[in-house]
């Protein structure tokens, strides 16, 4: 499934919020990302159509199994790349910002090689 970068950002946000909050609403996603209610509403509709999220009868957002798998993959890329960049001496804000941009475009092959290199050299 080829999700656009913005869709991946929404999934990652839902995943991060799910680790912090007992229940997630669209307003929580919008506040976290700094996006307007209409933008979030449209994105949630698209993610629902793709089968990546579902909303319960109270309007709370939950990742589907497919959505959770994808969100965890995106989040792992973000955290691993951030650690790599910080390990190279990049400040945390720049490392986080760069990881956020790169996580959507890096190939599985390159990312797996980075993870293996980090594990081999104790940068985990």
Walk me through the structure.
The protein has 124 residues and is mainly alpha-helical. The protein has two domains: 5-69, Arc Repressor Mutant, subunit A (Orthogonal Bundle); 74-120, Orthogonal Bundle (Diphtheria Toxin Repressor, domain 2). The protein is built from six helices and two strands; from the N terminus they run αααββααα. The chain has helices at 5-20, 26-33, 37-49, 65-87, 92-102, 108-120; strands spanning 53-55, 61-63. A two-stranded antiparallel ribbon has the order 1-2. β1 (53-55) and β2 (61-63) form a beta hairpin.
Distance between the termini: 29 Å
Question: What is the count of distinct domains?
Answer: 2
Report helical residue fraction: 55-70%
Runs in which pLDDT lies below 50 for 5 or more consecutive residues are none
The backbone outline, from C-alpha atoms, is elongated
Q: Pairing-aware structural class of the strands and helices?
A: mainly alpha
Total helices: the number is 6
**Series of H and E elements:** HHHEEHHH
Write the CATH homologous superfamily of the largest domain: Winged helix-like DNA-binding domain superfamily/Winged helix DNA-binding domain
Give the CATH level 1 class of the largest domain.
Mainly Alpha
């Amino acid at each position: 499934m080829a999700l656009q970068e913005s869709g991946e950002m929404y999934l990652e946000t839902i995943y991060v919020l799910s680790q912090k909050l007992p229940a997630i609403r669209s307003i929580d996603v919008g506040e976290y990302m700094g996006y307007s209610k209409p933008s979030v509403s449209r994105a949630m509709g698209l993610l629902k159509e793709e089968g990546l999220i579902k909303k319960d009868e109270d309007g709370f957002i939950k990742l589907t199994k497919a959505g959770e798998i994808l969100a965890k993959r995106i989040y792992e890329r973000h955290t691993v790349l951030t650690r790599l960049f910080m390990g190279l001496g990049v400040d945390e804000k720049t490392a986080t910002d760069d990881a956020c941009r790169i996580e959507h475009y890096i190939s599985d092959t390159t990312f797996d090689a980075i993870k293996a290199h980090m594990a081999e050299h104790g940068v985990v």
